[in-house]
Amino acid sequence: MKNGLNNVRQVQEEASVWTRDQMAARAAQELQDGFYVNLGIGVPTLVANHVPVGVDITFQSENGMLGIGPFPTEDEIDPDLINAGKQTVTELAGTAFVDSAASFAMIRGGHMNLSILGALQVSEKGDIANWMIPGKKVKGMGGGMDLVAGARRIIVLMEHVSKGGAHKFIPECGLPLTGSNVVDMIVTDLAVFERSDRKGASFRLTELAPGVTLEELRDKTTANFVVDL
């Protein structure tokens, strides 16, 4: 990782947490040449701005685009070209447009090397809840359930605590699950957690954001994790 990671280093003395862009830059380090990648709505879409130089990635969207280009400039906006989050995007040479059945066949068939998603909660067992808060109206789960079941690797990008101060990396999810035992890596504004496999392995703390102490992290985390710094 070059530009994005450099940006993270440049603000080490100025910030005690990673910004959303810096979180996305850290997640982008996990991209590998030739990967097919699906980005969830919200912070994950910023990952596309930090693809390492020389790494060729094909971004896929559940609404039927394979080969999503960068966000458009003002004079490039085409309201008919949108991603799954209804953000306007651009197309590339070779971009393919397919129907929903074909799009979800790519996902369910295990053809996505990586999916980077947001989350409301993640449990220490790798469960993810990211689609509904009881009592609030939602249009539906979207492609989340298919992505966590079909993509070969799942990375979660989220703030470590909610705006109301609630912990989000916790022993057990209290919200309706999107998937069980599916998360491989978590990148928050405070830290990075990884686990080697999904067969009962614990999450390992592998990085702390600049200025964040282990004591502060533990104070904001109720999930159990192994320190591997």
UniProtKB/TrEMBL annotation:
Gene3D superfamilies, A to Z: Glutaconate Coenzyme A-transferase (3.40.1080.10)
Domain of life: Bacteria
Membrane is among the record's keywords: no
Keywords: Transferase
Entries under SUPFAM superfamilies matching the protein: NagB/RpiA/CoA transferase-like (SSF100950)
Family: Belongs to the 3-oxoacid CoA-transferase subunit B family.
Name used for this protein in its record: 3-oxoacid CoA-transferase subunit B
Annotated source species: Massilia niabensis
Organism phylogeny: Bacteria, Pseudomonadati, Pseudomonadota, Betaproteobacteria, Burkholderiales
